[in-house]
Amino acid sequence: MLAKIKQTADYLKNKLPVIPTTAIILGTGLGELATEITNKTEIPYETIPNFPISTVEGHSGKLILGKLGKTPILAMQGRFHFYEGYNMKEVTFPVRVMAALGVKTLLLSNAAGGMNPNFEIGDIMIIRDHINLFPEHPLRGKNFNELGVRFPDMSEAYSKRLITKAKQIAHENNIKVQEGVYVGTQGPTFETPAEYNYFRIIGGDAVGMSTVPEVIVANHAGIQCFALSIITDLGVPGKIVEVTHEEVQQIANKIQPLMTTIMRELINSV
Ligand code: HPA
Q: What does DSSP assign to residue 105?
């Protein structure tokens, strides 16, 4: 694994004029932010050695290097999901490469179902913390001290400083934001009403099928994280209706300009 990470990082270092210290992983229907990136270099995943290839509909896979506002950034358009069949080492490989490139801050976005009864469809939720319910842990197996410690602390998996800053930005831009706990599950089924209820009882505000593996590995690697969920459907008793991937994408698309504003301003402030 160490050799692969180094090989991929070396390949990217040769391709990239500058190596940004901030990276962003764009989730379902949230790739639009990439269109705001200037001075772009785009690298399709299939041309990057050792990179898995994104397959799911609605995710085009490429790395985009450029500037968002005044800040150099490395964006991943399309991520690798566990439900696609990748193992956790594959899902989180890009984060390992980011760490090897010197990335210090990782921003992430996703679409999620809301369990908090105060949430509405189209809300943006700042992830304060997560509950990992994936059946495989990304750090399972031999630990490489070069990558991080055996038993990583997770007491501040999402940077409190970035959360405070993001709330301030949202307030200044009149963007309503919620804050809460994200439950990460493997999918690919959306939840049954009983499952939404269970996730609410254990302390979740929203549920989705990504983000948690990447955030775990980023924390292991000493990268600070910040993540936003767009609430695309509700798992709240009385409000549960059929969910489709298309609807999730539609809502995500509609809310994405607001998310982009928060991310852009946040990136310029880190
Ligand atoms: N559950 C899991 N993942 C999701 C959901 C959901 O309700 N909505 C968008 N992604």
A: E
Please, what's the largest Cα pairwise distance for the chain?
54
| Ligand 1 pocket mutation, candidates 211, 248, 251, 255, criterion most atoms within 8 A of CB | 248
pLDDT tens-place string over residues 57-87: 544 588 999 988 888 999 999 899 999 999 9
Instruction: Report the separation in Å between the CA atom of 235 and the middle of ligand 1, taken as the mean of its atom positions.
Output: 9
Let me know how long the chain is: 270
Q: Which residues line ligand 1 (CB under 6 A)?
A: 111-113, 190-191, 207-209, 232-233, 235, 243, 248
CATH number of the CATH domain containing 79: 3.40.50.1580
The half-sphere exposure of 124 on its side-chain side, counting CA atoms within 13 A, is: 27
Q: Which helix (H) or strand (E) holds 256?
A: helix 245-269
* 133: containing domain: 2-267
Q: What is the reported pTM?
A: 0.94
If one counts the domains in the chain, the total is 1
The three-state secondary structure class of 159 is coil
209, 212, 242, best to mutate for ligand 1 pocket (most atoms within 8 Å of CB): 209
DSSP structure string for 47-77: GSTT-----STT---EEEEEEETTEEEEEEE
